[in-house]
Specification:
The chain is α/β, with parallel strands linked by helices. The protein is built from 23 helices and 8 strands. It has 2 domains: about 250 residues, Rossmann fold (3-Layer(aba) Sandwich), CATH 3.40.50.450; about 325 residues, no CATH class. An 8-stranded mixed sheet has the order 7-6-5-1-2-3-4-8, with helices on both faces. A hairpin with a 2-residue loop joins strand 6 and strand 7.
């Protein structure tokens, strides 16, 4: 890697990529009877719990022990936790269910339209209790990173005013409450997606109210996020749940909190055993592909549909430091132009996320060339070993058979040496790991700009070697999570810009890529098949030709010595053609062009469907363009990417560099 690129990526990984523990908080409001009766004890229990968690995080080697708390900032539990988090210097990230002004007004609980108007306009409410609550919300949110789901604020305001103007109209109240609950549940999902552990202060009574504490607890468990459940009546006695079904099992009375289990969770969230960022820095980025390892791509070129089979295979990789002004320029420009967007997030995309992705992509491409070309070379050497080993027959050089045997031995030694080197250097393992990192980062911009994340419990578990094989997921998760939520108000204009200018172009380009790849690989597979079959057909022809000549000699239709004279040639052809055909079939099997083409075909079709859905959402009724709809489509995109990676791994995962059989 050139010094400047190495220094740049090294700085990103060492200084800017730092794992932090992500917590979420949910709990009863101040008006809840159980909370109101035990609020002081709950506050003390939260303070003690936060102290212990901070100590556990600080003790994890190789991290800074940073903690980020996510809260919806409703009154009661959320505000208690936020105040204690800020007192410890923790980051506070707040996915608000509404715009900041509307959120403050709703959670201050004004009883009159006059106070509603005052709070929405940023003025003090006339009711002292309402103003006191509003001031408390403003004080905490002023210190927080706000992500405001304000796309439906106008609808919420209209329904709220209608409900306040007609307090006896239950239909109006239900319409308002339903929309508010949906938005709170949506903000809760944003919170859960970004957390390692949700802390819930809940009495366990109501779980089916959208946006309520019980609903958030169930949603977290269904997403695979553990929940530390605190009984408000006995806040010192908490327990950890990891499955929704555990809600039906009441822990024994007086059971002590399981601090050992909590510590294990904190450690697992912050570090991957046996791996650290220093391992990543050992990978060397190069500005172009290797001239030594191009045979696999040559096979694709010779047997593929692209023409010019003997043209240059040299590929220049985009420099990480140039990607923000190169292939990523449109994304960076769109991020900076988003209405009410976060300039810091755009800068992070340009300075960290896109360069890291380009860096991982370049390394993965070189490792793929090394691994796949080495295996292809092994098949070629195996063919040459057999052919050269018997080439003395048709050439009539039996007296120097030892020279042919020596050449065969050297070729076989080359196979053994190349296999040993490739296995020792871990080309297969390293290629898999870096390709996963590159693909996770490739589709990250749209997710980051719109505050969408894959929940911790739904990241792939790759297996095949323990935790060490899962470091790419650990690295990518923290690299993306470190960016946090954008400081933005998500209006419909913001949504439209993010979907139309960032997400949709990315989907279209990936669909086109997979469509072209599927076609190319299907052609390569078919032509390799045809070539292998032709070799076997020629072998049959050569054997039949010998038998015909032999038969003609026996029938005195040809000189009897002719079959004897041609026997070495026919023997050579009878061995060479099947050997060549078998090794072409081996390359086809190893490359698995047909299955890879099928995987890309499925990916292209799935991306095409997602692209259609995005287009319909953007071109339809503007009221249908909501954060909920956009987030669902981005999750569909994320799932498509992760499933394509899983399919790819399922094909090549067991194909380690080995001796050709």
């Amino acid at each position: 890697m050139p010094d400047t690129e190495a220094a740049s990526i090294g700085a990103i990984i060492r200084a800017n990529w730092q794992p932090h523990l992500a917590l979420g908080i949910t709990g009863h409001r101040a008006a809840n009877a159980s909370f109101a009766a035990h609020s002081a004890a709950i506050g003390t229990a939260l303070a003690d719990l936060f102290d212990r968690i901070e100590t556990m995080a600080d003790a994890v080697p190789g991290t800074r022990g940073a903690v980020r708390l996510h809260s919806l900032m409703v009154d009661g539990t959320d505000q208690l936790a936020a105040e204690r988090a800020l007192a410890r210097g923790w980051e506070l990230a707040v996915p608000l269910p509404f715009g900041a002004a509307l959120n403050c007004a709703i959670n201050a609980h004004p009883a009159t339209l006059e106070d509603v108007e005052a709070l929405l306009a940023g003025r003090a409410a006339s009711d002292p209790a309402v103003e006191h609550q509003a001031a408390a919300i403003r004080a905490v949110t002023a210190q927080a990173q706000l992500f405001e789901l304000s796309d439906r604020d106008a609808e919420v305001e209209a329904l709220w005013r209608a409900a306040l103007a007609a307090p006896n109209d239950r239909a109006a109240a239900r319409a308002y409450e339903a929309l508010v609950s949906d938005n709170v549940a949506l903000a809760g999902r944003v919170m859960i997606e970004r957390t390692d552990l949700v802390i819930a202060v809940w009495d366990g009574k109501v779980a089916n109210l959208p946006g309520g504490t019980g609903h958030t607890v169930v949603a977290a468990l269904e997403m695979g996020t553990p929940v530390l459940l605190i009984d408000p009546a006995v806040p010192d006695a908490w327990n950890i749940l990891i499955r929704p079904e555990e809600l039906g099992h009441v822990p024994p009375t007086g059971a002590a909190p399981d601090y050992a289990r909590l510590e294990a969770m904190v450690r697992a969230a912050l570090m991957e055993d046996g791996w650290g960022p220093e391992h990543l820095l050992k990978e060397a980025w190069r500005p172009h592909s290797s001239r030594l390892f191009g045979l696999y791509r040559r096979i694709e070129r010779v047997f593929g549909p692209d023409g010019n089979p003997f043209g240059s295979l040299r590929v220049a990789y985009e420099a990480p430091g140039a990607v923000a002004t190169g292939s990523g320029a449109a994304v960076v420009q769109a991020a900076r132009a988003m209405p009410g967007g976060d300039d810091a997030m755009a800068a992070l995309l340009a300075g960290e996320v896109l360069p890291l992705g380009a860096w991982a992509d370049g390394i993965a491409s070189r490792l793929a060339d090394a691994y796949r070309s080495s295996m292809t070379v092994n098949f070629v050497l195996a063919t040459l070993a057999v052919v050269i080993g018997i080439a003395f027959l048709p050439t009539g050089m039996g007296e120097v058979k030892w020279a042919f045997a020596g050449a065969e031995l050297l070729l076989l030694a080359g196979i053994l040496g190349l296999t040993a080197v490739g296995s020792q250097l871990g080309w297969h393992r390293r290629w898999f790991a870096m390709r996963r990192v590159a693909e996770y980062l490739r589709h990250a911009p749209a997710l980051l700009l719109l505050g969408v994340a894959r929940p911790t419990g739904r990241w792939p578990r790759t297996g095949g070697g323990g935790h060490a094989s899962e470091w790419p997921e650990h690295f990518a998760r923290h690299a993306l999570r470190d960016a946090g939520l954008p400081r933005a108000a998500v209006t419909r204009d913001y949504l439209r810009a993010g979907l139309a200018e960032v997400a949709l172009p990315h989907i279209a380009s990936q669909r086109a890529y997979h469509t072209a790849k599927a076609h190319r690989l299907e052609v390569v597979h078919h032509r390799l098949d045809t070539a292998a079959e032709t070799c076997f057909a020629l072998a049959v022809v050569s054997v039949l030709a010998y038998l015909v000549v032999k038969g003609c000699g026996m029938a005195e239709m040809a000189p009897k010595h002719l079959a004897h004279d041609l026997s070495p040639l026919f023997t050579f052809l009878g061995v060479a053609f099947p050997t060549l055909g078998a090794n072409l079939a081996g390359i086809r099997y190893f490359g698995d062009f047909e299955r890879f083409g099928a995987i890309s075909r499925v990916a292209a079709e799935r991306l095409g469907e997602i692209e259609t859905r995005f287009t319909l959402l953007l071109s339809g009724d503007p009221s249908g363009l909501t954060y909920a709809a956009a987030a669902d489509l981005l999750h569909a995109l994320d799932d498509a990417v992760v499933e394509e990676i899983a399919s790819w791994q399922a094909v090549f995962g067991a194909k380690h560099l080995a001796l050709p059989a």
